[in-house]
Amino acid sequence: MSGPVRVLVVDDDPLVRAALAMVLGGPGDLVLVGEASDGDEVPAAVDRLAPHVVLMDIRMPRVDGLTATEQLRRRPDPPEVVVLTTFDADDQVLRALRAGASGFLLKDTPPADIVAAVRRVAAGEPILSPTVTRRLMAHVADGERRAGVSPDPAQVRRTQALGLLDQLSEREREVARAVGQGLPNAQIATDLYMSVATVKAHVSRLLTKLGVENRVQVALLVHDAELV
């Protein structure tokens, strides 16, 4: 894209919005184009402000961030969405990622990491922290066991994921596993002895073959298949 990355912040907490405004106001390549205090304000704000990236809170009083994310991702040429969360909403984060969010950040993420995350997402490289993802998956699984939920849905997802991944070449499976580990393109290129351009080409083919929208959804399939 040309020009600075346009960012919209959506959060019902004015202190969080103010803190994010300070964080995003420093770098010259990022610009905070607006704020919204609830999910029902998002469609109009996106139409009016044309952001490249939306930082979306999950819990809001009228329309939650999950619903707002699902609505945004159904639009033509939608902005990227990064959900803001705490660990008390792990299962909701999974729903957001499956809906097409480009990743998630914890609200106590250091300012420099938030800036880096917005840049990466705007460049088409969604955020997936391998450490946070492992904790997230484990937390959801523990919650299901405590609630007495049948493990069958997880097994169904595993079978479906394996079926999709079986259509990949061995090299594409290696790239998919690396994406599932949350590695950026440069690290994948180094680890698999290929150029960054080749990695990008493989990732593009993965999206097409697997029928998904972004790298986060590739990583979720890899985790569903228990390949990492």
TrEMBL record:
Q: One Pfam family, short name please?
A: Response_reg
Q: Which residues form the Response regulatory domain?
A: 6-122
Single biological process term from Gene Ontology: phosphorelay signal transduction system
Q: What InterPro entries does the record tag this protein with?
A: CheY-like_superfamily, NreC/VraR/RcsB-like_REC, Sig_transdc_resp-reg_C-effctor, Sig_transdc_resp-reg_receiver, Tscrpt_reg_LuxR_C, WalR-like
> Boundaries of each HTH luxR-type domain copy?
161-226
4-aspartylphosphate modified-residue sites: D57
- Give the protein name, as stated in the record: Response regulator transcription factor
Q: Under the GO molecular function aspect, what terms does this record hold?
A: DNA binding
For this protein, the record's Gene3D superfamilies field holds: 3.40.50.2300
Keywords attached to this entry: DNA-binding, Phosphoprotein, Transcription, Transcription regulation
Highest taxon of the source? Bacteria
